[in-house]
Write a structure and sequence with these properties.
Blueprint lengths: L2 E6 L3 E7 L5 E8 L3 H12 L7 E5 L14 E2 L10 E2 H6 L6 E5 H11 L9 E6 L3 E7 L2 E2 L32 H5 L1 H8 L11 H20 L5 E4 L8 H13 L16 E2 L7 H16 L1
Parallel strand pairs: 1-4, 4-7, 8-11, 11-12
Antiparallel strand pairs: 1-2, 2-3, 5-6, 8-9, 9-10
Helix pairs in contact: 3-8, 6-7
Bound molecules: adenosine-5'-diphosphate and zinc ion.
The site of adenosine-5'-diphosphate has 16 residues, from α5.
Length: 292
């Protein structure tokens, strides 16, 4: 059996097909343009693929309330043309298949819990620190949805005392995303994260912010694993810095091995590396097939 997977990011879309073991057997990628052009490319990719279901993990915010007429829509994104766009419905009109639909980060969390760093665990949190910051949550074996999907990139954080940057979130200024996403590093320092040396003060500030978010996640959701992915986390020296921030913030309040001696295997990179998003879409498709 083959299942289709669509990972729709703010900058690029990846489509692929894969199997029940999480193995991707074919993939294509193209830039995310206006919705009509983008959907045309997605539809033409799947036209000759014999898939049993399709999973979509997309940038958001999106409507995930199945009882709402706007289920399957991208909602309030500043991305030109995509606000109030019926992403899922457009595909459903082309393909009579079961569809999985969730955010890219929820998808990545599901993939990591199924095949990656959190395999065998019934909970994990996945953060992406990239063009934006987002988080996906698996709890008690299921992705968390409530009133909406989690929006943990926009939580409020304490400002670093040496940081005068106003923040780049169009809604909140200095929320987590406004202070720690890739574009805010670039605006603060005038250089892309990939161009900054590892001993640059940028990384101490970056770890300070991500460390706060991770600490709050430990305290509110208490997941069994925290996975940090996205372009900025290609800076591997950030992992030990973030772990140290979390331990500093917790100040020995939690005595569990995961937060003390074994923190290196608690706050980790994605086991699926840069495949977490596409594998997540595959996992959503498999789930839709099973539920059907
Ligand atoms: P997206 O979030 O758009 O899906 P990414 O996760 O690749 O894509 O994130 C892109 C962001 O990550 C950009 O702001 C880029 O500057 C930053 N980035 C990419 N690679 C690195 C790197 N090696 N070091 C630091 N920042 C990086
Ligand atoms: Zn924000």
């Amino acid at each position: 059996m083959y299942v289709g997977a669509i990972e729709a990011g703010g900058t690029k879309v990846v489509c692929g097909i894969g199997n029940e073991r999480g193995v991707i057997e074919d993939r294509v990628s193209f830039p995310t343009e206006a919705p009509d052009q983008t959907l045309e490319k997605i539809i033409s990719y799947f036209q000759d693929k014999r898939v049993s279901a399709i999973g979509i993990g997309t940038f958001g915010p999106i409507n995930i309330d199945t009882s709402n007429p706007l289920y399957g829509y991208v909602t309030s994104t500043p991305k030109p043309g995509w606000s109030n766009y019926d992403f899922l419905g457009t595909l459903k009109r082309e393909f009579d298949l079961p569809f999985g639909w969730d955010t890219d980060v929820n998808a990545a969390a599901l993939a990591e819990a199924t095949w990656g760093s959190a395999k065998g665990l019934d909970s994990c949190v996945y953060y992406t620190i990239g063009t934006g910051v987002g988080l996906g949550v698996v709890a008690e074996g299921k992705l968390i949805h409530g009133l909406m999907h989690p929006e943990g990139g926009h939580v409020l954080i304490r400002r670093h005392p040496d940081d005068g940057f106003e923040g780049s979130c169009p809604y909140h200024g200095d929320c987590l995303e406004g202070m720690a996403a890739g574009p805010s590093i670039e605006r603060r320092w005038g250089l892309k994260g990939s161009e900054l040396p590892t001993d640059h003060p940028a990384w101490k500030i970056e770890a300070f912010y991500i460390g706060q978010a991770v600490t709050n996640t430990v305290l509110t959701l208490a997941p069994k694993k925290i996975i940090l992915g996205g372009g900025v986390m290609h800076q591997e020296h950030l992992y030990p810095m973030i772990r140290a921030e979390v331990q500093h913030n917790l100040n020995r309040y939690i005595q569990l091995a995961e937060l003390t001696a074994e923190i290196e295997s608690y706050i980790v990179p994605p086991g699926l590396r840069d495949n977490a998003g596409l594998c997540g879409a595959l996992a959503l498709g498999l789930e839709a097939h099973t539920n059907n």
